[in-house]
Amino acid sequence: MGLEPRDLHNQSEFTEIWDALDLTSSVALNARQPAPSASRPSAAASTAAAAPGQGRDTAADAEGAAACALPAVSRPTEDAGPPASEASLSGAADAVAANTGSTNALEQTGASRAAEDLQADAAASAVPAASAEIATLQQILRTREGNLALVSDVDEQLLINVCFKQPIRLASFSIIASTPPAGFPTNSDEEDSVAAPMLVKVYCNKSAINFCGVFDEACAFSVQLTAEDVISGRRIALPGSKFHMCSSAQLFVQENQTGATYTYLNRLNFYGVAHKRYS
Known about the structure:
By secondary structure, the protein is an alpha+beta fold. It folds into two domains: 11-34 and 135-274, Jelly Rolls (Sandwich); 39-125. The protein is built from five helices and twelve strands. It has helices spanning 43-69, 86-125, 137-142, 213-216, 227-232; strands at 15-16, 21-29, 133-134, 148-151, 158-176, 194-195, 197-204, 221-224, 236-237, 246-256, 262-265, 267-274. Strands 1, 2, 5, 7, 8, 9, 10 and 12 form an eight-stranded antiparallel sheet that branches. It has a four-stranded mixed sheet with strand order 3-4-11-6. Helix 1 (43-69) runs antiparallel to helix 2 (86-125). The longest helix is centred in the middle third of the chain and has 40 residues, at 86-125. The radius of gyration is 34 Å and the shape is elongated. The two termini are 40 Å apart. Residues 1-9, 41-53 and 64-80 have low confidence and may be disordered. This is PITH domain-containing protein. Residues 95-279 form the PITH domain. InterPro entries: Galactose-bd-like_sf, PITH1-like, PITH_dom, PITH_dom_sf. Residues 31-95 are annotated as: Disordered.
């Protein structure tokens, strides 16, 4: 495995060669495709649709409870009649006590429901952990943000073929993988887990290479990235003698940081200088 030439070039003289990328011809093998936007369920829409019905049901329950809680009131008459007996007075007292107990029970139930609603609202308003949306290689190459992720499909390996519009003196590259894709755990012990790239082999002008060829063909450069490398996006210097006239670069991500099921990355940047065209 080749060693990283940390001091091979003065990297400050090279800038990102975004304008030289040929996005149409670039492709990533074993990369999963993003789901169509129309098929993605909208949680907010579902919640909004359910809210009116829930409100009506709650109001109806409250009205019914209030009606049950009201004690019966007798209509006054002109002739009150003889005084009530002790049994009658005792029965009336029991009825009032029963009504009072029902009212207290309803108040406790209402308070309990209110507390549950507050807990649900607090959970819904909690800020979720940052996550990225699955994207294509072209989107990854164009983005300046970390909210997109290129994710491997069948296993942890990715074979990325990036083409340039003209020959490039390719000086370095960087990989940023700091925001995992949504819906994928980062614990390697869990099913369908994801992790950032670690072992990366780089080829030059091998645009026809496939997964069989990466093991048969000697790479021009290889590097074992650290977790800090992919979080900070540190530039990885390339040997100039092998990438002096680079029309395409192939990156074979062979292993990831934790041995997770899949590999992801948020950004892929190239640095160098384009050779002048002569007519």
